[in-house]
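If you are new to this repository, start here. Below is one unmodified record pulled from the training split, so you can see the exact layout before writing a loader.
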Amino acid sequence: GDVDTWSWDFDNDGTEDSTEQNPVYTYTTGGTYTVSLTASGLGGSDTNTKTDYITVYNPAV
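And here is the target side for that same chain:
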């Protein structure tokens, strides 16, 4: 089915960081991050989690 809402958690803290389909997120602390996306629509929702998916070596200041 069609997806009409997105919920991104870029730092695995359980808090939604963006609801955009194609978001931009800036990490301010170096580390390795787990990213989760929950996509929802009329047919229900599905969550995909990528463990240790992004590694930040030189964060933006």
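Two things worth knowing about this chain: The beta strands are 3-9, 31-41, 44-56. The chain has no helices and three strands.
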